[in-house]
């Protein structure tokens, strides 16, 4: 999606949410990315932003679930022919950038409540003013806002691409070393929380047909461990059950401080696994703790830009690992 398309889509989604709609995400070939979109809208990364209803669903369930003011976001080329928004770029890393920007811009629209009611049915045109009652409440012309949104999207996209390029260049030797280790590894186990859980799921999908398992994928196991032994151990206990020396544990944490990710990496190191970690900011405890053989740190303080660069790192490690022709 280009910047103008992102701006228009953000306005459309904000109006749909203001009308009481739900965003249904369809990503039949790429469910990890569908889950990541849902996390972005339901659990805002910026404190104080509204939780907006979004859910990744199977296309066969969409007809029954979709209401009259609901929206549909499709990732990839498969799915319904009439989505509200389609993210269809060839590069999955650009998908991540697109839905991050879409979330950010949608929340900007909510700062202009007068624009939320245009083109909506009369029954829903009145109640939206309470959302931001003192901020441009009477605004009706969307053209200026759309131009600003497009400019913002262009700037953030340029920032993301520059960070990705700088991170890949800075980590070139680490990428080669990690790829060599992964070639020697037996099975890959990936894990993380929230958006990082979706990134872990996407990494497992990417590395197949090599044996790769996402430890966030089984809700029965995950919730049983969280309920009975504590959420801090949900990944470590799975590694104890499933993994063996020579396997690979790959953990994702934008902060580098997620307790359950750190516990799992420590357990993996103790058990003779190859450990790989992805962090942001200054690397946090992940970079300082000594349990990670290959620790990749994205030097940024933006969660979205960190995750975009982490996706680029995973893709480059996968490409380098596959260069042996296997």
Molecular structure report:
With about 325 residues, the chain is of the alpha/beta class. The chain folds into 2 domains: about 5-160, 3-Layer(aba) Sandwich (Rossmann fold), CATH 3.40.50; about 170-320, Rossmann fold. It has 12 helices and 9 strands. It has helices spanning about 5-20, 30-40, 60-65, 90-110, 145-170, 170-185, 195-205, 220-230, 235-240, 260-270, 285-290, 305-320, and strands at about 25, 55, 70-75, 85, 190, 210-215, 250, 275-280, 295-300. The strands form 2 sheets. Strands 6-5-7-8-9 form a 5-stranded parallel β-sheet, with helices on both faces. It has a 4-stranded parallel β-sheet with strand order 2-1-3-4, sandwiched between helices. Strand 7 (about 250), helix 10 and strand 8 form a beta-alpha-beta unit. Helix 1 packs across helix 4 (about 90-110) and helix 4 packs antiparallel against helix 12 (about 305-320). The longest helix has 28 residues, at about 145-170. Mean pLDDT is about 90; it is low at about 120-135.
Total domain count = 2
Mind telling me which CATH architecture of the largest domain this is?
3-Layer(aba) Sandwich
- CATH uppermost class of the largest domain: Alpha Beta
Q: What would the principal axes of the Cα set say about the shape?
A: globular
Q: What is the topology, as strand order, of the major beta sheet?
A: 6-5-7-8-9
Tell me the distance between the termini.
Answer: 33 Å
- Which structural class matches the secondary elements? alpha/beta
Rounded mean pLDDT is 91
**Low confidence ranges:** 119-137
């Amino acid at each position: 999606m280009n910047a103008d398309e992102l701006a228009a889509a953000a306005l459309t989604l904000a109006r749909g949410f203001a009308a009481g709609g739900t965003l249904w995400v369809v990503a039949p070939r790429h469910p990890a990315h569908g889950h990541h979109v849902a996390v972005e809208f339901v659990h805002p990364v910026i404190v104080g932003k509204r939780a907006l209803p979004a859910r990744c669903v199977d296309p066969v369930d969409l007809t029954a679930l979709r209401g009259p003011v609901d929206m549909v976001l499709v990732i990839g080329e498969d799915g319904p022919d009439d989505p509200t928004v389609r993210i269809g770029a060839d590069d999955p890393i650009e998908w991540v950038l697109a839905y991050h920007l879409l979330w950010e811009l949608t929340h900007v629209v909510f700062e202009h409540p007068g624009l939320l009611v245009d083109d909506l049915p009369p029954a829903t045109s009145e109640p939206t003013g309470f959302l931001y009652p003192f901020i441009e409440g009477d605004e009706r012309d969307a053209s200026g806002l759309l131009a600003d949104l497009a400019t913002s999207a262009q700037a953030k996209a340029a920032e993301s691409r520059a960070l990705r390029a700088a991170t890949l260049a800075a980590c070139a030797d680490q990428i080669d070393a990690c790829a060599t280790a992964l070639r020697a590894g037996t099975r890959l186990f990936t894990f993380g929380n929230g958006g990082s859980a979706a990134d872990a799921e996407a990494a497992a999908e990417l590395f197949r047909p090599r044996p790769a398992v996402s430890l966030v994928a089984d809700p029965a196991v995950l919730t049983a461990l969280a309920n009975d032994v504590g959420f801090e151990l949900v990944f470590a206990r799975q590694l104890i059950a499933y993994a063996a020396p020579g396997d690979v544990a790959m953990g994702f944490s934008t902060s580098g401080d997620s307790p359950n990710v750190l516990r799992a990496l420590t357990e993996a190191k103790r058990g003779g696994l190859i450990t790989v970690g992805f962090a942001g900011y200054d690397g946090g405890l992940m970079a300082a703790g000594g349990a990670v053989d290959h620790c990749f740190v994205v030097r940024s303080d933006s969660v979205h830009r960190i995750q975009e660069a982490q996706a680029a790192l995973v893709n480059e490690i996968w490409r380098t690992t596959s260069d042996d022709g296997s």
